[in-house]
Amino acid sequence: MSVLKIQPAVMNRTLPVFFKLKKGQWPSFDLVLLGLGSDGHTLSLFPGTPALAVKDRLAVDVIYKGVPDPRISLTFPVANHGQAVFFLVSGEEKAGIVQRVFGDKKIYPAQQINPVSGRLAWFLDKAAAAQWPGKPQRICIAADHGGFRLKEYLTRRLQKADYKVVDFGNRKLDPVDDYPDFIIPLARAVARGEFDRGIAICGSGVGACIVANKVPGVRACMIHEKFSARQGVEDDDMNVICLGSRVLTDALAWELVTIFLASHFSGAERHCRRLAKVAALETPIKRSNANA
Q1: Which of 29, 137, 198, 251 is the one with CA 20 to 30 A from 69?
Q2: 209 part of the active site
Q3: Which entry of 140, 202, 209, 221 is annotated as an active-site residue?
Q4: CATH code of the domain occupying 138-277
């Protein structure tokens, strides 16, 4: 038996000892850096390889076509227990595979990367980014007095990041203003397709969320943690993020917004089916005739 064939077994014995893991535990890394192959592979695992189904070992053998000896590779559960997972993508030929990885059919190994921390980022070089449709460009933002300061802060950060931002107000700090006066116009503009995403802010995020969701075509959610900022877009096609300035730090609010804007709806059939059922609720309900 070759050394290569022994390595996975050795790693599966020694890594738990090194990380002082109990049975069933996974090691946790501060950072995991991954590359993306032209066929959507990562961690040396290719589409169709049986190693993709391995969920109880730290390392496995991966058989390459035309290569006599297997290559050792970590499994997806190991990568998914990283505190932060970054994909590093270079070359214009990779832009197409990135788009397919974000698509409907779950056939690529890179689509299995879903860190439990929720911190997943993609970094494309200029060649790859030139072929990629890119981030949503048309952004609108609105807030009442409770969210005014945070609105101003986020607007400055967005503009520095080259986003085109339209401010729906309030344009000045008015302690007696009402959040519907600003959130409703924003929500209607998003629903009409005039903007790709909207950011609605009040003191807690609750009022902004309630009023935004009264507008048909808006899928708004109050977000105060990073996992939902991404998952809300990928699974539920969230188009308005609602933030509470009195319960979020500026740094966390900015991180939530960047995750929200960098995420894309998966378009998966099951999610489209569920969203259609939600949209059906927006059809006016015929009231029964009480005199009938």
Answers
A1: 29
A2: no
A3: 202
A4: 3.40.1400.10
